[in-house]
Amino acid sequence: MPSLKIITLGCSKNTVDTEHLLAVLEPAYTIVEEGDAAARTDFLLLNTCGFIGDAKEESIAAILEAVQMKKEGNVGKVVVFGCLSQRYERDLREGIPEVDAWFGARDFNPLLRYLGVEVSFAPFASDAPRHLTTPRHYAFLKISEGCDRRCSYCAIPLIRGRHVSVPLERLVAEAKSLAAAGVKELIVVAQDTGRYGLDLYGRRALATLLEALSGVDGIEWIRMHYCYPDGFPDDVLALMASNPKICPYLDIPLQHASDRVLSQMHRHTTGVEVRAQIEKFRHAVPGIVLRTTLMVGHPGEGEKEFAELMDFVRDTRFDRMGAFKYSEEEGTYGAGHYRDEVPAEVKQERLDALMTLQAEISLANNRRRIGTVERVIVDSVPGDTLVCRSRFESPDVDGEILVKPGPDDFPGQSADALVGQFMDVEITDAEEYDLLARPKNLL
């Protein structure tokens, strides 16, 4: 059979799309895993990201690298799909003619027909298979597609369309299939997970979904990403506080804290309301870990507004935080109505200052965990170190718990056999983002 590899760029939602496609292609192709540096691949597919400037540059660099591999004879055909080609196919086709085929973010059936696979591709059907590209013990579960929000800087609604929830019974069936394949942790993702169900059931049904998922045998942890703060359903907090399978972890991108900037972003909230929301989360779920994403350099962010953002981060002391620089995106409200007025070097200075502050906060937060005993799952075993996470860390975006077992800690257990297992560890030291620990016992 011909060989095929998919390189996935961008967010975990793209990962889910890739995994559905690979499962459909598997009967007709020899699948080369993304990390496998095989000598030659007949088809190299790139699932691209087009969200912000840095992501677009990364995708274009990956396309150019793939084209070079084709010139060197290590790749037969290069095929590009996903968000970047959804937005810029004409320009890309003209600029990089060496690519053999281009498809958009939703062109799954045309892509499959190009590859000689005649199926009606329905990625969210109850029996839709997945070829996991994550370690087998965790998987992302995409619960909706698209977004109805119209944040001034965001092109996602232009790329992915309106918000469409996946019916609950299909998601439960998918979770059962994943659990049967060995998945123990589900990471719930969407553009706006808190909005789940509004289009199908006339109400926010995220809590109902989470409760149903927690009833799936084999699933031990469920965590949520990408929760928009405005209108977040309170019943999810009550469930998180009472259901041990729902990790006390919430990824809630806030973007800013200045009223002026939030208004220009069309976030429909204020700095006071954002602070009150965080207070509510922490009161409703004691010990909750909050992760956020912030933006610097948005039009309207002067020195005063940036100082407000720094004060907000200093006061709130997020457990996890990422940040990125504003980039003007064609077709968005911001591109049509605002001037990208903050110089590039100022954006970088602000980003550096914000992340330096967060590194100090993260180190202090981590040091408070020294001496505690925590339940972790083993993600990988490179060399003599177990790379683990607790309920408070999400894969890829957060720090890790690094465990160095002694020669007598796991008698009769190979390193590979430990991957996906739970164990108790004692935290012994802290770095800015990672923790060091010693094993207590397997669970």
Rg over alpha carbons: 22 Å
The span between the termini is 42 Å
Tally of helical segments: 15
Which residues form runs of ≥5 with pLDDT under 50? none
- Our estimate of the beta-strand percent is 15-25%
Instruction: Count the beta strands.
Output: 18
Major sheet size, sense and barrel closure:
6 strands, parallel
Quaternary assembly: single chain
Q: Work out the helicity level.
A: 25-40%
Strand order of the largest sheet: 6-9-10-11-12-13
Averaged pLDDT: 93
Could you walk me through the main structural features you see in this protein, from its secondary elements to its overall organization?
The structure is a single chain. The chain is of the alpha/beta class and 443 residues long. 36% of the residues lie in helices and 22% in strands. The protein is built from 15 helices and 18 strands. The strands form four sheets. Strands 6-9-10-11-12-13 form a six-stranded parallel β-sheet. Strand 12, helix 12 and strand 13 form a beta-alpha-beta unit. Helix 12 packs parallel to helix 14.
